[in-house]
């Protein structure tokens, strides 16, 4: 490892020693499944088992709840923002719909009926297509320009998370057999199958530069891949439980990974070295780095401190400066 990288890791470690304050917000009546930042970093959204989506704004030292979107008839399992329009948010729900919300008018602007209970959603970087996966391993492709279903693809294996490459012309899905399937879009022809892990591949995320993607697996490993060569560059192995959620920082330098471990691991991408970790009290469902600064939003299976049977319904943000 070069001296430069040593210095960089030390600098990052030092940064988080002075920026490790956590802000918590209790806004839902049930567990939070998904969090995500708008592309400009102005808004943070959380989707919950309570069927609601909460929108927060970020000030230098805190989060402020702005609005709550209601309308879904089932759990909001995953959400994602438009890659270039900071006002548009899409949500996937167990109520067999996908919804698009606009923060300017503070309401749902489109509802798309699908054939099953939706659990995964991914908006293509060009903004033209939303892909949504359901519990029966059917992936539906919605053209957002005309709000119509463009294609449906039924898979004969367990489909977990789905993602697009930076150019929006290839589509990636992780499966229960430890593989990543890569399809062309819009043709949906199978281009490659990567045998990535011995265990189920649970989550996938592209770094902001488009050079890499990372996969979180049931074998408790995170693997980092070269997006052009489709070769594995390194693995991150500090967690002991299946990796449920991963996120790259805005500059692609950091990778956060979380599981049922009582810690969220933050690694430097180029070396795999640990930069920081965040202690948590329960399994983590979702992590998301801010698109411009080192702030990590996350939500865990936290319980109410006064009633252990009740969900806390909280989300947290790590990385504020210590007083």
TrEMBL record:
InterPro entries: Tex1/THOC3, WD40/YVTN_repeat-like_dom_sf, WD40_repeat_CS, WD40_repeat_dom_sf, WD40_rpt. GO terms for cellular component: THO complex part of transcription export complex. It comes from the Eukaryota. WD repeats lie at residues 25-66, 69-111, 194-235. GO terms for biological process: mRNA export from nucleus. The keyword GTP-binding does not apply. Signal peptide: none annotated. Gene3D superfamilies: YVTN repeat-like/Quinoprotein amine dehydrogenase. Keywords: Repeat, WD repeat. Belongs to the THOC3 family. This is THO complex subunit 3. It comes from Cotesia glomerata.
């Amino acid at each position: 490892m070069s001296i430069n990288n040593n210095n960089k890791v030390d600098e990052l470690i030092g940064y988080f020693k002075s920026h490790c304050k956590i802000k918590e917000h209790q806004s839902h009546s049930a567990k939070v499944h998904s969090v995500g930042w708008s592309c400009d970093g102005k808004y943070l959204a959380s989707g919950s088992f309570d069927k609601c989506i909460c929108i927060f704004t970020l000030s230098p030292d805190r989060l402020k709840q702005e609005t709550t979107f209601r309308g879904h008839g089932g759990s909001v399992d995953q959400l994602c923002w438009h890659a270039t329009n900071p006002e548009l948010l899409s949500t996937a729900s167990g109520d067999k719909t996908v919804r698009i919300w606009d923060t300017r008018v503070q309401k749902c602007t489109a509802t798309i009926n699908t054939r099953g209970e939706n659990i995964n959603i991914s908006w293509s970087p060009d903004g033209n297509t939303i892909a949504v996966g359901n519990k029966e391993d059917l992936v539906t492709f919605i053209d957002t320009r005309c709000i119509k279903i463009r294609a449906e693809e039924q898979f004969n294996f367990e489909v977990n998370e789905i993602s697009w490459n930076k150019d929006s012309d290839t589509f990636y899905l992780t499966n229960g057999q430890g593989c990543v399937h890569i399809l062309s879009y819009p043709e949906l022809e199978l281009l490659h199958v990567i045998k990535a892990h011995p265990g189920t591949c649970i989550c996938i995320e592209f770094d902001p530069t488009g050079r890499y993607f990372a996969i979180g697996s049931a074998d408790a490993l995170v693997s980092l891949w070269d997006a052009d060569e489709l070769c594995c560059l390194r693995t991150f192995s500090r967690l002991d439980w299946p990796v449920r959620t991963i996120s790259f920082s805005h500059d692609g330098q950091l990778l956060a990974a979380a599981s049922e471990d009582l810690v969220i691991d933050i690694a430097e991408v180029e070396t795999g070295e640990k930069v920081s970790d965040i202690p948590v009290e329960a399994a983590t469902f979702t992590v998301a780095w801010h698109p411009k600064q080192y702030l990590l939003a996350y939500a865990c299976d936290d319980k109410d401190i006064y009633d252990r049977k009740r969900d806390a319904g909280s989300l947290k943000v790590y990385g504020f400066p210590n007083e």
